[in-house]
Specification:
By secondary structure, the protein is mainly alpha-helical. It has one domain. 66% of the residues lie in helices and 0% in strands. It contains five helices and no strands. α2 packs across α3 and α3 runs antiparallel to α4. It is flat. The termini are far apart. It holds the Pfam family DDE_Tnp_Tn3. This is Transposase. It comes from Colwellia maritima.
Length: 166
Amino acid sequence: MRKLSSYSKKNPTLKALIEFDKMTMSIYMLNYINDIDLRRRVSRALNRGEAFHQLRAGILQISGKKLLGKTDKAYEISNQCNKILACCIIYYNTSILSELLAKAEAANDEVLCSQIKRFSPVAWQHINLLGNFEFRHTDNVIDIQDVTKFAVENSINTKTTESPLN
């Protein structure tokens, strides 16, 4: 069986599919122009993708913006390690944000809930990307509840010591 894209441009089925694609794209573009909510969702999705790429670029800077390795397989391993580190950072941030949100909801703090919901799990400014990464099995697990407890306590201390002019 041959692929449809390998047919000549005069193939009636291919022509019909090309026209159908043009119609679908035109309808989408008109909806995009008309619907501000759709534009916001598309913009948010593009921003998420860009933030992920910035995180990966930050991780890549550790090695001087060089992919490590001399073969295609070594480059692929280096690229996949970069992705794993990025996903670990996102998972760590998501765990902390989820725990903070649960505590804010339990305290019925709607202002804090809305602030937490706007935070991005792709943020990485608070993570030290310099140093050696060791992947090994250990019984020491990061306790997310302790991390969030520390964050909440520091937030309360900061609020009470702030000047009213801030």
